[in-house]
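Support case: zinc ion complex. Customer-provided input:
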Amino acid sequence: MKCRRCGAELPGGRGAYRWRCEVVALGDDALSPAGDFNELEERQQRIFEELASVSPEQIEADVYQLWEGLFCRRCRFELGRVLEQFLGREDGI
Ligand SMILES: [Zn+2]
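Agent response - structure generated as follows:
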């Protein structure tokens, strides 16, 4: 067992932290926006044209993405520090 970030050994899971980050799009109206029928068809056509130039992996990641693994204690606190910065908080974990 190793830390996903730095590769430190985590024998038997000792000193390991499980990490899981899931991002899920809310709402399902992207492909069926509100509006009159002509406007709806135009908007759907634009969406389909945009989707044609994007890989299936990018489309999936736009709707759902999961990161997970094990961290050592040092990387766990580094992740906390980065998340606090991302969230705009200064107090830390
Ligand atoms: Zn680590």
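The pocket of zinc ion is lined by residues 3, 5-6, 8, 71-72, 74-75 (CB under 6 Å).

Case will auto-close in a few days if no follow-up is received.
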